[in-house]
Amino acid sequence: MILFHNDYSEGCHEKVLTALVKTNMEQTPGYSEDNYCAQAAEKIRKCCGREDLAVHFLVGGTQANLTVIAAGLRPHQGVLGADSAHVNVHETGAIEATGHKVLWLPSVNGKIEAKQVSDYMAAHWADPSFEHTVQPGMVYISSPTEWGTLYSRPELEELSRVCRENGLYLFLDGARMGYGLMAQDNDVTLADLANLCDVFYIGGTKVGALFGEAVVISNPALAKDFRYVMKQRGGMLAKGRLLGVQFDALFEDDLYFKVSAHADAMAEKLRDTFSRLGYSFFMPPQTNQLFPILPAKVREYLGQTYTFIEMDQIDADNRVCRFCTSWATKEENVDALCRDLEIITERS
To answer: Using a CB cutoff of 8 Å and minimum separation of 24, what contacts does 282-286 make?
Structure first.
């Protein structure tokens, strides 16, 4: 089988693996206090255009999300996010397990708007019994979203403004950040994120690393004592240098951006084939995740050779399907999928 159901099926980029092997027997301090973590953090600061950023390395996305949210909220506070947000639907109550509620908002194309946040805050404070309800303390977004869509710079600017006016942290989940940064429709840079968000993370697990995410904090209030929370939440890896080595390699010679651009190019090739053959998309295709609507006959035929995720049922015959490309996707596999799609479409 050829796998298109996620973007983390392979191990890591060969340059990351080479770096891990090369440094394997070196003796370094633990808990990310080694030179590799320091070098990787400095490279990330340089890409963001700010030397005052705190950079911390954690093993995975769920761990990064729960650690950041737990660090930013007081016991009576919750986090606002889209109904489709990863922290709301795909993390088994990990945020609630930290003692904080996810306060979800209805989304369009996986995104929430600044006005929704301001309206929610106004309604909260206008309620005479506000002290009996969970107080929002943070806004969580992801870009790309769970639906592969992107926040534009104006949208982020408005969200940032509203968050600052209401005393809310703005946290951006960047598990697939590379694929967003290199997308054709993207107008946001790492420097923009550093200036508009209080905290975000750069995903490595899905973008060329064996595992790991780099949490970047621009707000000093959130940066204070963050390592205490990392330790308490199980996020302080004893062999932390394994994370530093990987991100040091990914941010050498723009490797992170190059492998991300490859994934997007493969997705564009597949997107163009779906479109040319007359298939529509449930969500606007912008990054490495595609959500075409396919009839049963096409799904059954492709399912003999390729893996993909079947999602929402549109009608008796058609379903939304998710196809993912990644940093490691082979063009020959994309070409084969395109050919088979043409074959079954002609038969249908």
So the answer is: 282/147, 282/311, 282/312, 282/314, 282/320, 283/109, 283/110, 283/147, 283/148, 283/149, 284/109, 284/149, 285/148, 286/144, 286/148, 286/149, 286/150, 286/183, 286/184, 286/185, 286/186
> Measured between alpha carbons, how far is 168 from 112 in angstroms, rounded to an integer?
15
CB-CB neighbours of 228 under 10 Å: 11
Q: What angle do CA 182, 199, 124 make, to 5 degrees?
A: 115
Decide if 33 contacts 182 (C-beta within 8 A).
no
What angle is formed at CA 109 by the lines to CA 105 and CA 115, rounded to 5 degrees?
Answer: 45
Supply the angle between the helices 241-250 and 255-276 in degrees, to the nearest 10. Answer: 70
pLDDT in tens, 217-244: 999 999 999 999 999 999 999 999 999 9
CB atoms within 10 A of CB 1: 9
Q: Which pLDDT belongs to residue 342? A: 97
Low-confidence ranges of the chain (pLDDT < 50): none
- With beta carbons less than 8 A apart as the criterion, state whether 263 and 326 touch: yes
Identify whether the C-beta of residue 78 lies closer than 8 Å to the C-beta of residue 88.
no
Q: How many CA atoms are closer than 13 Å to the CA of 202, on its beta-carbon side?
A: 33
Q: Which two tokens stand for residue 259?
A: 């492998």
**Number of C-beta neighbours around residue 171 at 10 A:** 29
In whole angstroms, what separates CA 182 from the centre of its chain?
14
